Amino acid sequence: LKSAYPDSVAIFLLPPSWSELEGRLRRRGANTDSEIEERLSWGLKELEAARNFDFHVVNDELEDAVRAVAGICTGSERPPGAGLVALQRLIDDAGTAASGS
Fold this sequence. Notes:
Blueprint: E1 11-14, H1 18-28, H2 33-49, E2 55-58, H3 62-74, H4 84-99
Parallel strand pairs: 1-2
């Protein structure tokens, strides 16, 4: 998309933690354990791709996440890369969970 629309802004929404992502998927009650495991496996790949996004917003509190995305869209908030620390923490957390440690 970035090559087709170079002026676009890519925003990746992150869960607050890997365990919270898993918990959210389970609380929905819409998927089997196998489907949840597959979704988490895809989630690891998506996190690696998230490095290519311009912004990273942690979706912990909905109102805060909406405010952050709106601020990014209006240019009034968050420099590019501001969420990279949260992204790396989540990648590390996911890797630990995936290895069973």
